[in-house]
Design a protein that fits this description.
The chain is an alpha/beta fold. It has two domains: 233 residues, 3-Layer(aba) Sandwich (Aspartate Aminotransferase, domain 2), CATH 3.40.640.10; 120 residues, Alpha-Beta Complex (Aspartate Aminotransferase, domain 1). 43% of the residues lie in helices and 13% in strands. The protein has a seven-stranded mixed β-sheet, with helices on both faces. Helix 7 links the parallel strand 5 and strand 6. The N and C termini lie far apart (53 Å).
């Protein structure tokens, strides 16, 4: 990325046939190959976007317009971009989840059947690959089969999973898959929508023939190059990184639950390797977040105060958990054993002091 950003000639338009344009085009297509290789799909199926949120919105817009007016099925544990975009696109049918935050394929199948019998079959179904707050993985393969039988379009939000677990999207067979670069260590402000081979959807962004007329606008060449580089780096060490991440999160979970009245949220086993969540009894999460930050440890809370939203986390509410007393603990490619030890050394004391203050 630095080479492109510091180029004295600037960045050429990949859509032009002059030398600067063709050089930029070659860089974009090389990155497309790298991302496709990581995701287990063909390069032609990759549409670069400005990030996971745009990819989700493009999936909702394009997927819902394949069957206009039909119900859109999703669980409340889906990311807000999925929920909000779907609410604007058409009627929404909400699917229940268990206490781990996982949907039940049998319940989904029964819902699809009931809608078909009512004369209003489902048009679009959302099933995240894994939950962004608690890490629980979903039964995506079973959902793919159910949607195929029902004739519904399936979108999989894989932003939290891509780059952390192996994905073979061509084998999976989902219609639309959204991914984000920065979730796997790439640059912020770029992502991708992956379309099933042969599927054509209306583009969300108009104004040019870029991305094979599937997304208008000049490509962000430096960011796309960075996305490709991150994908290539992850591809080379995915298994090793996942093993290290799981070791780190298991250590975090053990340190947290060693404290009285701290319990895991989500599925501690069937989850992505880099995310765990805990419920902290006796104290709200926000003071814990702030106190840990003073100790040099950054964690996230599902409470309203820890985000730009004024509403409690619908993910945790759907699971029956208290959003005001939950912490998300996540690790990445740069996390070290010392970082995990810093959390373990600070957490118990922070919780104890805050509980005394409430006392």
């Amino acid at each position: 990325m630095v080479g492109w950003l510091q180029s004295p000639e600037g960045v050429g338009d990949p859509g032009r046939v002059h030398t600067e344009g063709t050089v930029a085009r070659a860089a974009v297509e090389a990155a497309r190959d790298q991302v496709a290789a990581l995701l287990g799909t063909r390069a032609r199926q990759i549409v670069f976007t400005s990030g996971g949120t745009e990819a989700v919105n493009a999936a909702v817009f394009g997927g819902s317009r394949l069957h206009p007016g039909r119900p859109i099925l999703l669980a409340e544990v889906e990311h807000s971009s999925v929920r909000d975009a779907s609410a604007r696109a058409g009627p929404v049918v909400t699917l229940p989840v268990d206490h781990h935050g996982r949907i039940d394929p049998d319940t989904l199948g029964a819902t699809l059947d009931a809608l078909a019998r009512s004369g209003t079959p489902a048009g679009l179904v959302h099933c995240q690959a894994a939950n962004h707050e608690v890490g629980t993985t979903q039964p995506v393969s079973a959902v793919v089969e159910l949607c195929r039988e029902a004739g519904a379009v399936l979108h999989v939000d894989a932003c939290i999973a891509a780059g952390h677990v192996a994905l073979a999207l061509d084998d999976l067979g989902a219609d639309l898959v959204s991914v984000s670069a920065h979730k796997m260590g790439g640059p912020p402000g770029t992502g991708a929508l992956v379309l099933r081979r042969g599927l054509r959807v209306e583009p969300l962004i108009l104004g040019g023939e870029q991305e094979r007329a599937r997304r208008g606008g000049l490509e962000n060449v430096p960011a796309i190059v960075g996305f490709g580089a991150a994908a290539a780096a992850v591809s080379a060490r995915l298994t090793a990184e996942a093993d290290t991440a799981r070791r780190h999160t298991e250590a975090l979970l053990a340190a947290a639950t060693a404290v009285d009245d701290v319990a895991p949220l989500g599925d501690p086993a069937r989850r992505v390797p880099h995310v765990v969540s805990v419920a902290v009894g006796g104290v709200e999460a926000e003071p814990v977040v702030l106190a840990l930050d003073q100790a040099g440890v950054a964690v996230h809370s599902g409470s309203a105060c820890s985000s730009e939203s004024l509403a409690p986390s619908p993910v945790l509410a759907a699971m029956g958990a208290d959003a005001e007393r939950s912490l998300r603990l996540s690790v990445g490619w740069s996390t070290t054993d010392a970082d995990v030890d810093a959390f373990a050394g600070a957490f118990a004391g922070v919780v104890a002091r805050l509980r005394l203050l409430r006392g």
